Amino acid sequence: MYGKLGYHHIPYPFGTSAYHLSRDIVAAKFPKKEFFEVIAMAGVIRKFLDPTLPILECCAGHSLMGMLLACDPRVPSVTMLDRKFPANQARLLKVMIDFQPDLEAKL
Fold it and tell me: Which of 22, 38, 67, 98 has the fewest CB atoms within 10 Å around its CB?
């Protein structure tokens, strides 16, 4: 068991914002392996990112990478492009907006 809710597979300390976002993503029935991989990749991308420029994510799929990068307060905006977004992308956007309410204005 990890944390009060038993989310033993979440690799973040209980009580941190990363833990809460992970818990909400897992509770929304998104694939947790892919979620943790995207979080790790977003961390690497942030090291090389010029935070003053807008971000364009092509072939965005669920747009999780763009949403995570938009959580950075220095990033002015993120545009996510894809031919067709998956049906559950709106559900993921709701989880992310619940996590960070001002996110929708950046996307």
Answer: 98
Question: Each residue of 13-64: pLDDT tens digit?
Answer: 666 677 778 778 877 777 777 888 888 888 888 888 887 888 998 988 888 8
Q: Which residues contact 43 (CB under 8 A, 6 or more apart)?
A: none
Query: What 3-state DSSP class applies to 91?
Result: helix
Question: How far apart are alpha carbons 85 and 88 in whole angstroms?
Answer: 8
DSSP three-state, residue 79:
strand
pTM of the model: 0.78
User: Which residues, other chains included, contact 41 with Cβ-Cβ below 8 Å and sequence gap of 6+?
Assistant: 65
